[in-house]
Amino acid sequence: MVLNTFRTLRNARRALVENAPRPADGELLLETVGLTKAYAGADGELPVLGGIDLQVRAGEVVALLGKSGSGKSTLLRCLAGLVPPSSGTVAYRGAPLTGANPGTAMVFQTFALLPWLTVQQNVELGLEARGVPADERAGAAGQAIDLIGLDGFESAYPKELSGGMRQRVGFARALVVEPDVLMMDEPFSALDVLTAENLRGELMELWESGQFPTRAIVLVTHNIEEAVLMADRIVVLGSRPYGTIRETFEVALERPRDRDSPDFAELIDRVYRTMTGRTKETIPPVLNSVRAGEVPVAGRAEGVEPDRRTPANTPLPGAGVDGLSGLAEMVAHRGGDCDLADLADDLGLEIDDVLPLVDALELLGFAAVSGGDLVLTDRGSTFAGADVQRSKRIFAEAGMDVPLVRLITTSLRQSPDGTLRAGFFRDVLAHHYTSEQVTRQLETATDWGRYGELYGYDAERREYRLDEGAAA
Ligand SMILES: Nc1ncnc2c1ncn2[C@@H]1O[C@H](COP(=O)(O)OP(=O)(O)O)[C@@H](O)[C@H]1O
Ligand SMILES: [Mg+2]
Which CATH class is domain 280-286+300-305+319-391? Predict the structure, then answer.
């Protein structure tokens, strides 16, 4: 399938290239200097990007990697000229942007296809937007459709297609304009694992063949492995205090990349350490001396003093009590200390799947990450070995160190009848997070508060209620 597509592609590409002068390898295509971006929020400006200096050159695949909310999509949109920076500049081939970037085209996570148009018409849209006359559109769209393996689907409507085929339409629509830079915002994350893997493989095969109709790729992803598989350069964005480039990794691994090679694993490890913002140096030497009740090292490692941790700068990960308890028990079984990559491997999971649980253990003071290892604290070991009643008590105490859980509990204590509408907390959080992020955090806070018997939640009335035991 891949090879077949590939051959069609090669022929199609020959037809596509009409001698258009292409930037030579190494030519500077995109450049930001001192780029900052802040969004207007209810209580002032929300800084998202702070002083980004980034260059994208012909011939390279650049991955923008970071956790959710680190400003990856915002940076991509600034590069595409879809969002104006608050300060600093974005230039395409040396010319500062004043509107949409003429050298880029975008592929979105959600495909963004028009359901009432066929595949062919959806792809032609890309050309229409660039003012290509109607009679030239059909041919070019047909070639892009061939190139990306959609031959035979021209007259299908999006609803008749699988997710993978829909995303191919997204690719064809972007590639049909032959942009110098293809921009992709988490293009594989809405697909199932196998489909994503297949599409990634085909795309990279095309790219390596040198017949790709673009000269550079900028890929936004939160998936470390995807970045290491695809990119020549990985730019890691940090989220605290707000979007800056935390580190850049050159990926010198040969293509196609071998997931099983030691070099691959070693790079994953290094990127992982950077992404979690913790290195051996920032971890206190004797982890288990962290006193019960003391806030764990995570905040300190990022330069945030424990007493300055607030719901605004400490988002709750999407991790339920069952999952994080399971992880704590597994680490306890391994002697309280284990390599994260190995652990994920043994569970058949991606490291990214385990990250929210790891974040949760750290927030609760149950564990800390040191190098690539997850190490239980005393509190964490006690929690992992406790019976249900004891573990609930430990959890209640730990929960009060978690800003959002503490906010809900203390607010309820101050409410005359011990209840508050969820909308109250939604409003508080909405100043800092998208509504999706607010929902996820409240789900986590509800789960944690219930388990610790701090408060309950009535879904019908959308109301939090203080647990009797926690009223004291
Ligand atoms: N149009 C917008 N208006 C206000 N805030 C926004 C807007 N777009 C994004 N944000 C906020 O900016 C931050 C970064 O968002 P985003 O760039 O989407 O990050 P990522 O793609 O890394 O998840 C988030 O806190 C988000 O809530
Ligand atoms: Mg995004």
Answer: mainly alpha
Which protein residues are within 6 Å of ligand 1, measured from CB? 39, 46, 48, 66, 68-74, 433-434
Structure tokens at 302: 């990022």
| Ligand 1 centroid to residue 393 C-alpha, Å | 36
pLDDT score recorded for residue 7: 42
Q: Distance from the CA of 247 to the center of ligand 1, in angstroms?
A: 21
Task: Tell me the per-residue pLDDT of 198-212, one tens digit each, with 9 for 90 and over.
Answer: 899 999 999 998 778
Query: How far is the centre of ligand 1, averaged over its atoms, from the C-alpha of 394 (Å)?
Result: 35
Question: Is residue 307 predicted with pLDDT exceeding 50?
Answer: no
Residue 338 near residue 331 (C-beta atoms within 8 A): yes
Give 354's DSSP letter: H
State the pLDDT at residue 472: 60
What's the CA gap between 376 and 324, in Å, rounded?
12
Q: Looking at ligand 1, which atom is closest to the CA of residue 70?
A: 22
d(CA 232, CA 228): 8
pLDDT score of 129: 82
Pull the structure tokens for residue 361. 């253990």
CA-wise closest residue to 467 among 403, 388, 393, 404: 393
**Is the pLDDT confidence value at 299 over 70?**
no
Burial 283-296 (b: 16+ CB within 10 A, else e): beeebeebeeeebb
Question: Residue 456's beta-bridge partner residues?
Answer: 465
Lookup result for tokens 């800084």: 47
Residue nearest to atom 24 of ligand 1 (CA): 69
Q: How far is the CA of 51 from the centre of ligand 1 (A)?
A: 16
Eight-state DSSP code of residue 375: E
CATH 1.10.10.10 in the chain, residue ranges: 280-286+300-305+319-391
337 - beta bridge partners? 375
Question: Domain spanning 2-275: which CATH class is it, in words?
Answer: alpha beta
The per-residue pLDDT for range 98-108, each reduced to its tens digit, is: 999 999 999 99
Q: CATH 3.40.50.300 region(s) of the chain? A: 2-275
3-state secondary structure of 400: coil
Q: Model confidence over 73-116: pLDDT tens digits?
A: 999 999 999 999 999 999 999 999 999 999 999 999 888 899 99
